[in-house]
Amino acid sequence: KASKVLEMIKRNALQPSSVVEVGCGVGEILNQLHENMTQGPQFVGYDISPDAITIANERAKDRLTFHQEDFLQKDDNFDLLLMIDVFEHVEDSYSFLKACRPRAKYHIFHIPLDISVQAVLRNTMMNQRKKVGHIHYYTKDTALATLEDCGYTIMDNMFTKGSMELNHQEGRSGFMRTIRKMAYNWNEDRASKLLGGSSLMVLAKG
Description:
By secondary structure, the chain is of the alpha/beta class. The chain is built from 10 helices and 7 strands. The model has no long low-confidence stretch (mean pLDDT about 90).
């Protein structure tokens, strides 16, 4: 995911001097960005999980700090705000997104796209609910519409294809990965709606 964030930053020529990640978990995304963006940005991570921040603090260093606090209770503003696989877990996601919007000039979101024809037929959305706590489900169109409803201006977006790019086990999943690759090479939008297996990276202006 860090590589995709870097790709989005580079292809839009962003030069942030400060970067915050809301819901940073154990801090590996910020750690990788820190290693690849060596010229100056200050990186700050927030998460409410004490266990996650305990691990994240092992990665703390010059220009990279972590805080076990509610970001919305702080007053600091940033050039770039990252929200990577977060707001699908938040009960009142609209209020959360609206509150985060004025806190940065630019925002990069990574949003799982749980809704597809295959997902509905196989009811895999319930697996996402039970295993990882997703309580909101999106297609590309509804994800972008949600951000626009909350006042964001969409600047760029791209699919990320974790189910095809990561090293999953062979067998049925390997066969499905091959089918998905062929479908995405044909038409990304239609493949996402039919077969799923992707998330959406979005750059927006607050």
